[in-house]
Amino acid sequence: MSHFWSDIVDKLTPYVPGEQPVLARPVKLNTNENPYAPSPRVAEAIRRELGETGDTLRKYPDPTARALRTTIARHCGLKAEQVFMGNGSDEVLAHVFQALLKHDKPIRFPDVTYSFYPVYAQLFGVAFQAVPLNADFGIDVDDYRAPNGGVLLPNPNAPTGRALPLAEIEILLEANPDSVVVIDEAYVDFGAESAVALIDKHPNLLVVQTLSKARSLAGMRVGFALGHEALIEALTRVKDSFNSYPLDRLAQVAAIAAVEDDDWFRESCAKVIASREHLTTQLLALGFEVVPSAANFVFARHPAHDAATLAARLKEKEIFVRHFKLPRIEQHLRITVGNDCECNALIAGLRALM
Ligand code: PMP
């Protein structure tokens, strides 16, 4: 603490991102990255944009990312005016807090969820109520009927991996006609139903997605929001009061190439899903309890082994998984679905420890 700090900075408890170890070949199953290289069209598009000399980098990128928004809109059956782009969906979510969730009444999100939400709430002075998940880590949409300043849910939820069916999301939207309902679909492509189809019917729905997971572009930082034009305009007003150029030139062309490659997308999602099912079977065989996952990670606990100790012992073997020292989940590990070699290394590592 320094007397130069503002009061708000003094009181913040910042989000702690998963470790990015500086090791030659870590088994890195701690930040839900995709184990496969992105579509080969991505590197081609970046090379094309750079050309021989990188001359295009002299100039600022398109502040509105028009070509990328048009590509995403076409892909989702929406208009470009219904798409907002940000530097990763974390940045999109930050703007959502400022633009759409900061009202008099507290917003509601699950007690076990993406741990960035309470951090943004604190940063932007947004009051919130954490609504307990049920005993199976499921979300009961009837718990979101109380008056609120907005509702925010990941689907599938993180770090549990559990998905809500679309019919439940629709109940949530109908129960909250006067607040914005934000569905964070970071992991939707690995087995949940997207709420994008409900956008034209529900002006209070905002869907947030990312290219970090199913498109394997975590390193490019590209996220977006989809919704009614009025919601998108609110986000654009905040963006243009903060940073007009959140997406650089390379990110814009890379993202277009990634979104256009449907074959790569389908194949890699199918591989991750198959590996997730195999990993789940192996963890169950080792005595773990595994929450049914619709994401690219599994959430598991062992009745006889302390989760923090397991994570620390795996780390000694250069195998990284995520452990959250938080109420209700401190005996769980969140394990990203890796490629076959990484999943086998994890299982061998756990077997050796148990
Ligand atoms: N939402 C959820 C639920 C996440 O787990 C993550 C990844 N940590 C994000 C959003 C943000 O992802 P990105 O900023 O890479 O788009």
Mind explaining what this structure looks like?
The chain has 354 residues and is an alpha/beta fold. It has two domains: 19-37 and 263-353, Alpha-Beta Complex (Aspartate Aminotransferase, domain 1), CATH 3.90.1150; 40-260, Type I PLP-dependent aspartate aminotransferase-like (Major domain) (Aspartate Aminotransferase, domain 2). The protein contains eleven helices and twelve strands. It has helices at 7-11, 40-50, 66-76, 88-101, 116-124, 166-175, 229-239, 249-260, 262-285, 307-316, 340-353; strands spanning 27-29, 83-86, 107-110, 128-131, 151-154, 181-184, 205-210, 223-227, 289-291, 297-301, 319-321, 333-336. A five-stranded mixed β-sheet has the order 2-8-7-6-5, with helices on both faces. Helix 6 (166-175) links the parallel strand 5 and strand 6. Helix 3 (66-76) runs parallel beside helix 8 (249-260). It is globular and about 55 Å long. It binds 4'-deoxy-4'-aminopyridoxal-5'-phosphate. 4'-deoxy-4'-aminopyridoxal-5'-phosphate is lined by residues 88-90, 114, 154, 158, 184, 186, 210, 212, 218, 223. 4'-deoxy-4'-aminopyridoxal-5'-phosphate (PMP) binds next to helix 4.
